[in-house]
Design a protein that fits this description.
228 residues; alpha/beta; TIM Barrel; 8-stranded parallel beta sheet; binds zinc ion
Length: 228
């Protein structure tokens, strides 16, 4: 039996056999009947002074009610973007939504490890969080995983100059996902690069990541074809 590849965060709806993916959609985009999706309010939305927070949160809440919308994301914090205090307030409202609606979160996180960890503790959040596009040091990874936060790595694994290239082998595999995000490569290329850095094979990695996926989303996805 051929095993599935899992792409935990992508922006393309293109699918194929043996691929499970969580497609990130914009709030206004409709969700197709089949597949798995995520909706969230990206911290960059606040770069637009006319952005209507309450309206967006209402729309988000409505979208999260759909069973095929299995995660809230991207949400998070980005030190390189506007009004960090406002970003924190928006993120906290999404934490509350994630907890109330029992949907794990996919996080966009730039230079904000400490704040993410502090807010997870402050809200005593129980829902799993996945930091997507992780490109930190081994110490950053330990700090996040220590709070039960999962990490997802992408195209950076193909680039020796990135931090993740060195820190990758120190990530606890029970907390690992892989993704393509915006990259125009197949997720199997990311699996190949990951397997090479870990000194393992692709099948072992597929099993590990499938186990992680089932642990996080098993309840949501039970009985659906993808997990059989
Ligand atoms: Zn993305």
């Amino acid at each position: 039996m051929e095993l599935n590849f899992i792409d935990i965060h992508t922006h393309t709806t293109k699918s194929r056999d043996n691929l499970i993916q969580i497609v990130n959609l914009d709030l206004g985009q409709p969700y197709p009947e089949q597949g798995y999706y995520s909706y969230g309010i990206h911290p960059w939305a606040l770069d637009n002074a006319d952005f209507q927070v309450d309206e967006a949160l209402n729309k988000l809440k409505e979208n999260l009610q759909q069973p095929q919308v299995i995660a809230l994301g991207e949400a998070g914090l980005d030190k390189f973007h506007a009004d960090f205090e406002q970003q924190i307030r928006l993120f906290e409202r999404q934490i509350v939504l994630s907890e109330n609606m029992k949907k794990p979160m996919i996080l966009h996180e730039v230079k904000s490890h400490n704040e993410i960890v502090t807010l997870r503790k402050k809200h005593r959040a129980k829902q799993p969080w996945i930091v997507h596009g992780f490109n930190g040091t081994a110490q950053d990874a330990r700090q996040l995983i220590g709070q039960g936060i999962y990490l997802s790595a992408g195209e950076s694994l193909l680039h020796p100059e990135r931090k993740i290239y060195k820190s990758f082998k120190f990530i606890d595999l029970d907390y690992l996902f892989l993704e393509t995000d915006m990259a125009e490569i197949g997720v199997e290329k990311v699996y190949e690069a990951a397997a090479k850095l870990l000194g393992t094979d692709i099948v072992t990695l597929q099993k590990q990541i499938f186990t992680n996926f089932a642990r996080l989303f098993g309840r949501e996805t039970r009985g659906r074809e993808a997990l059989h």
